[in-house]
Specification:
32% of the residues lie in helices and 22% in strands. The chain has 129 residues and is α/β, with parallel strands linked by helices. It starts with 8 loop residues before the first helix and ends with a strand.
Length: 129
């Protein structure tokens, strides 16, 4: 058994399969999940695991070259805004409906138990070399 990093075997395996440019949607419990991408649902109950916990774990495992979130997060969820802006320099903001459209192209969806609005981000994978 791994002693460090992501222990969830479904998530660990899905991350290992990602390549340059692939999209990973990290979403709250209320975000509509598009048909097609692999889904790893970590939601246990409202708020568990939190968006912040999942994002922190993913950023420790992935190289991210870009990120997109809904512009509505600024007004509706200041905590998520602060987290996203501090964790993802150069964060792009688009209308929520556009984020849902972009999410359809994601290769992986990671659903958290977050129950606050607009705690969603689409990450674009980079390379480590």
């Amino acid at each position: 058994m791994k002693k460090a990093g992501i222990l969830n075997r479904h998530l660990s395996g899905a991350l290992a399969e990602l390549g340059h440019g692939d999209g990973v949607l990290v979403c709250d419990a209320g975000m509509p999940i598009p048909p097609g991408p692999r889904v790893v649902d970590l939601a246990f109950r409202a708020g568990v695991p939190s968006f912040a916990q999942v994002l922190d774990g993913l950023l420790a495992e992935l190289v991210v070259e870009g990120a997109t979130a809904a512009e509505e997060v600024r007004a509706a969820n200041p905590a998520a805004t602060a987290l996203l802006e501090s964790s993802l320099p150069g964060l792009a903001l688009v209308p929520h409906e556009r984020l849902k459209e972009l999410s359809a192209g994601a290769r992986l969806v990671v659903r958290t138990g977050e129950a606050r609005p607009y705690a969603n981000v689409l990450l674009r994978c980079g390379v480590f070399f």
